[in-house]
Design brief:
Organism: Pustulibacterium marinum
GO molecular function: phosphorelay sensor kinase activity
Helix content: 40-55%
Structural class: alpha/beta
Order of helices and strands: EHEHEHEHEH
Number of domains: 1
Protein name: Two-component system, chemotaxis family, response regulator CheY
Number of helices: 5
CATH architecture: 3-Layer(aba) Sandwich
Keywords: Phosphoprotein
Modified residues (4-aspartylphosphate): 52
């Protein structure tokens, strides 16, 4: 079963995403980028990461930069799931190496299709 890491400081949202994706994937949730990075460094390797941008300790921008600058985790596709809808934020995330960007509120089915497309594209 493919692994998905969901990072969002809103437990209700990350729980809903995990519940929806849990029928097709092994889903792990973390509340911020710092905890997620620690989880990755503890030898966990997801097939896709879904992250919010606005979080305590380490926001999504910093998390994306750290993941993409690392040699080991740089190839993991990242989908940003954020309420930030500005073109500037989307461009910043894509330039930093995010694979996709979705705005909250979102359609869970669309998220699933985007994940499946990324997995196929990356032959995961």
């Amino acid at each position: 079963m493919k692994k998905i890491l969901v990072i969002d400081d809103k437990e209700t949202l990350s729980g809903l995403v995990a519940q929806f994706l849990g029928t097709n994937f092994d889903v792990t949730t973390k509340l911020n980028g710092y905890d997620a990075l620690q989880w990755l460094q503890d030898s966990n390797l997801p097939d896709v990461i879904i992250t919010d941008l606005q979080m305590p300790k380490m926001d999504g921008f910093e998390f994306i930069n750290k993941v993409k600058q690392s040699g080991f985790f740089a190839e993991i596709p990242i989908i940003v799931l954020s309420c930030k809808n500005s073109s500037k934020d989307r461009i910043s995330c894509l330039k930093a190496g995010a694979s996709d960007y979705m705005v909250k509120p979102f359609n869970p089915e669309e998220l699933l299709i985007r994940i499946e497309n990324l997995l196929q594209k990356n032959n995961v």
